[in-house]
Here is the input.
Amino acid sequence: MKRFALISLMILSLGLTFALSCYDVQYTETAGADGTYPTPYLDQTVTVTGVVTANMYGTSSSYPQGKFFISDVTGGPWSGLYVYRFGTGVAIGDIVNVTGKIIEYYGMTEVAGTSPTPTIQILSSGNPLPAPALIQTSVLQNPAVQALGEQWESVLCEVRNVTVTATPNSYQEFYVTDGSAPGQIDNTGMIYSFVWSGITIGQFWGKIVGNVDYSFDIFGLCPRAESDLYPTAVEDNVVILPEAKLIGNFPNPFVGSTEIAFNLKSVQPVQINVYNLKGQKVRTLVNGIKAAQLHNVTFDGKDDNGKQLSSGIYMYKMTAGNSVETRKMVIR
Here is the structure.
């Protein structure tokens, strides 16, 4: 009996040391009171494994070794995490174990810098990074659309074939667009004293790579160096936006409410209806002329009479000009 108890204790101890992925920490379908989507591991001390994708975030002369981002090696949505810890000596390409407390800092999920101070264990170095995820500049628009940006927080991403719509402000933030909506590019991934030079309205880049942060209610793309801005056009896999695009809803499944996002390239009449699986229309969400921009509409899970719909699968259809698109959503 004692031997069995000892073995059980050893198994339990080993189980407590198992590391989480960034996806484990980040993925959620439940919105918080402020409209952001807090981690399911809020205020818990955990160990997370990932590859370092940026190591100069928030660097200054006072803090020469900056805070950093890690990623699951597979990349993709929900795969990034921000670590608030200076002076670790980690390099891009290091695979690390990070142990610390998970918090939400004004809507951005991070490993807290104190209480307790995070511990960093470098497991290996020189590893390849996941390919940057291709996102649209509308993910980075001001004000933020959580349905678009939340899944890309802290992820290594890229935007392609973009032109400048606004030059750098006093915070060294400027805006570019790929035709979806203007999105923010920030210098926070480099040393604080860095100043953009020679950026003009209409300037073109074939590709800009960086980590997505969330600050002052805006998702921004943070290049790690000037070399993350590529002047040559990207000819392959260029995203050509249709006249109207139903992007989808987030969260899905949902409890309470969800946001449906759609994009228009021209002014046109738009109708979005919700149907049950019998094909009966239960709610009209949009019915009118809409501007050429990214839109999002909130669906509260109720029918046209204000009655709460039962849990289950529903379809929503957008008709805009000659475009008709349908998506599925689930009410829990």
Observations:
- The radius of gyration is 22 Å.
